[in-house]
């Protein structure tokens, strides 16, 4: 058995721990709510009719990610939501959702709204990819 770390008191390498694992709670009995991830892009007439920009219908050309989470029998005041760059962590008294997001997001400038008549939380996050300056001139 060979230890890779310089410091022999550490029991694992930080590279071995997956991102967002600090939120994992396998002993929590709350069930996971239904959710769906949608992508949204801003298009104008030059995109739709003339095809003048580089945009296409793929998720690579979408600016926003919308996560719709069904929360039946939940009040707005019971929802605890934490958003990191790659992780969405939602907790209510009955439900728990730890979602590893498909893209990095701008965690500081998202929007969330609770649609009480639909019992759905709608979270809109700006996707933050490395080469977006090329896609969105």
UniProtKB/TrEMBL annotation:
Tree of life domain: Eukaryota
Single GO MF descriptor: protein-folding chaperone binding
Xref: Pfam families: PIH1_CS
GO biological process: axonemal dynein complex assembly; flagellated sperm motility
One Gene Ontology term, aspect cellular component: cytoplasm
Annotated PIH1D1/2/3 CS-like domain residues: 32-127
Entry-linked PANTHER family: DYNEIN AXONEMAL ASSEMBLY FACTOR 6 (PTHR21083:SF0), TWISTER (PTHR21083)
Family statement drawn from the similarity comment of this UniProt entry: Belongs to the PIH1 family.
Name of the protein this chain belongs to: PIHD3 protein
Gene: Pih1d3
């Amino acid at each position: 058995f060979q230890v890779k770390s310089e410091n022999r008191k550490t029991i694992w390498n930080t590279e071995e721990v997956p991102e967002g694992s600090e939120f994992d709670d396998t002993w929590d009995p709350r069930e996971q709510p239904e959710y769906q991830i949608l992508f949204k892009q801003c298009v104008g007439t030059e995109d739709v009719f003339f095809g003048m920009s580089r945009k296409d219908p793929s998720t690579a050309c979408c600016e926003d990610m919308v996560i719709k989470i069904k929360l039946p029998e939940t009040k707005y005041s019971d929802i605890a939501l934490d958003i990191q760059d790659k992780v969405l962590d939602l907790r209510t008294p009955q439900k728990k959702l730890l979602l590893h997001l498909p893209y990095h997001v701008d965690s500081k400038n998202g929007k969330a709204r609770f649609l009480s008549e639909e019992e759905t939380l709608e979270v809109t996050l700006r996707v933050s990819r490395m080469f977006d300056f090329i896609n969105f001139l």
